[in-house]
Amino acid sequence: MSDEQQKGEGSALQEVDRKIRLSVITTTVVIVTLFALVLYRRYPLTPFFFYFIPDVSINLIIFLSFLLALIGLYLFIRMSRQVVRIIHDYSSKLEQLLSITRDLREEIYGDILLEKILDNAMAITNADAGSILLCEDEKLVFKIVRGEKASQLVGTTVDPGKGITGWVADTGQTARLLDVASDGRFNADIDALTGYETKSLLCIPLVARSAVIGVIELLNKKDGHPFRKRDEEVISYLAGQAAISIIRTRFYEDQKNYEIHLTEMLLESIDVHISEKRGHSRRVARYSNIMAKGLNMTEDRKRRLYFAALLHDVGFMKINSEETFRKEEFMRHPSIGYEMIKPITFYADIATFILHHHERYDGQGYPSELKGEEIPLEARIIAIAEAFDAMVSPTSYKVPISSGEAILELRHKAGTQFDRELVEIFTTNIDTQQIKD
Q: At what angle do helices 12-42 and 58-106 cross, to 10 degrees?
């Protein structure tokens, strides 16, 4: 933004202060003028500077007083309305920002987060189009784009320092242009590609840990007005919060990627260690999900149940494969699994489910002889899923039976070995298509 465009502009609070000062000055001038006229009429022997005031009638003084009072009142009301409008507009945007910030902090998926950031930025500024570009491999990559022919830009790159977005990313400074065509930094290549005509622009850097990680670009207000200083201030605050959320979701996604790879390695190791259990953990996870859906579990709780089901037998890794099915050794695997998983940060919240997945609803299970709802819900779910798979799987250490017979057995043990409500949910919703290797 040029110096000429910046001249005379201040923040919203400075604008309010300027309006209030002007209102006070106007009111003061009116009052002083009225006082001078009355004083001149009442006391002819007044200081010398009143001699320059012509002799006027009382009617004229009253008329002038009334006229000045009306002018002062009009100006005061007009400026008061402007001040109220500015304050209301600014406070409304701040309330939006607080709500948006809370929403961004709760979002854990990177693509959805970027969509929320851009959609909210466009709504706040009434922008016609916009985009978010992130820094990857020393280039700016269009990640989210809104507007005419937006899909053509997703995935395309901008070289460092090229165009206004490149300049913002390089310098970490904001660019707010009333007329982009008059700015030497403007690169018309993107407009040529999309056929969209950029007239005014607001480009804000996304800064986290003192480094620019991307930019938010907003184009052309729908009402035809240029972007204001207030728009810049509000979106700059949003960009600061957005950058923090982007870094957080990146960390979460990296952690999820590591968690998935580690889980896959553990599952492969279990399958190799005990050939009879090959595929068992994945089937238990699939059957557990049937009950999770029947209970309308939250996505986060479903995720924890899923990983607990996958790793419920991880304790066998520390038991000699030749002794796996000896009763004394077999009964140790929940406790061993618990001790293995609990120290790992992203598994810590599922360790208890692994520990108690062999408890019985009547309190006759192990290792803690918990009873009824003392047993964690997820552990009760895994117990049913594991028992069902053990009964129907051809690779199980037991002689397999049909799915119908297995369902009858679960119902027979409902209320003693298993949670009756969960058995009902499972047996009602399971179908033969879900019973596979």
A: 170
The C-alpha atoms of residue 51 and residue 44 are separated, in whole angstroms, by 9
Sequence-distant (6+) residues with CB within 8 A of 382 are 284, 288, 305, 308, 309, 312, 353, 357
Q: Are 372 and 379 in contact (CB under 8 A)?
A: no
Q: Which CATH superfamily is domain 112-251 in?
A: GAF domain (3.30.450.40)
> Where would I find the beta strands (DSSP E) of 185-344?
201-208, 211-221
Bridge partners (DSSP) of residue 207 are: 212
CA–CA distance, 377 with 366 (Å, rounded to integer) = 16
Q: Give the model confidence (pLDDT) of 22-61 as tens digits.
A: 667 766 776 676 676 666 666 655 555 555 555 555 566 5
| pLDDT tens, residue by residue, 251-261 | 877 777 777 78
Amino acid present at 379:
A
Q: How does DSSP assign 237-268, residue by residue?
A: HHHHHHHHHHHHHHHHHHHHHHHHHHHHHHHH
Residue 58 CB contacts under 8 Å (≥ 6 apart), including other chains: 41
pLDDT digits (tens, 9 = 90+) for 107-140: 777 888 888 899 989 988 999 999 999 998 888 9
The rounded radius of gyration (Å) of the Cα atoms in the chain is 36
Topology alike, domains 112-251 and 274-434: no
Domain ranges for the chain: 3-103, 112-251, 274-434
Residue 193: is its pLDDT beyond 70?
yes
Check: CB of residue 384 under 8 Å from CB of residue 422.
yes
First to last CA, the chain: 64
Return the biggest CA–CA distance within the chain: 124
Count of Cβ atoms closer than 10 Å to residue 192 Cβ: 9
- The number of CA neighbours under 13 Å toward the Cβ of 6 is 7
Annotation: CATH topology of 274-434 = Hypothetical protein af1432 (1.10.3210)
Reported pTM: 0.52
Question: Parallel, antiparallel, or unpaired: how do β-strands 139-146 and 211-221 relate?
Answer: unpaired
Residue 406 sits at φ, ψ, to 5 deg, of -65, -40
Q: Which pLDDT belongs to residue 38?
A: 65
